[in-house]
Amino acid sequence: EPEVTQTPSHQVTQMGQEVILRCVPISNHLYFYWYRQILGQKVEFLVSFYNNEISEKSEIFDDQFSVERPDGSNFTLKIRSTKLEDSAMYFCASSLDVNEQFFGPGTRLTVL
Amino acid sequence: AQSVAQPEDQVNVAEGNPLTVKCTYSVSGNPYLFWYVQYPNRGLQFLLKYITGDNLVKGSYGFEAEFNKSQTSFHLKKPSALVSDSALYFCAVSLTGGGNKLTFGTGTQLKVEL
Fold it and tell me: Does the beta-carbon distance from A42 to B90 stay under 8 Å?
């Protein structure tokens, strides 16, 4: 069964450093998403991406964040200058249409 | 704006008994409703959805949920709980024509005991 994959599973970085989180969505899916889950809290929407552009973003997704689909298979989330409060589990998801989104296993980001 | 409420942080049930995990939602339009399950150190797994049609939807692992428009609820149910159902359950809503953004509830920890 096709699945969304994410790398790395755990990323540790120093405050102020740039990080790139990588995702490979399900191959025939058209919509791509990033969500995050701060420890013990609910899952929060960050951004959705369709037809090579951002279709919606939350107030969390400020200028420090960017997304890219560089090669037609990968979908990346970049945080330019990480802050302590960026520590969270980041989930990538993809969907074919407005139906269910399929989530990856997540990348745990720890900012020291 | 759209929101989801899961009023119970934790639900405890004995194996073999029926279980209910509650969810209410608020959207300014017609909702799409979803249930996801999260096992420890794992991602979110899709359980079931309501898009349109029959108010009772059946999903994976014997779970079902009933859409109640008048009560704006979408409670998750299972007739006979298993210990292996113990996990964190999230209800989520998106708005039709709203770009597919999922808004999640705070989650309900289900604990099924022998």
Answer: yes
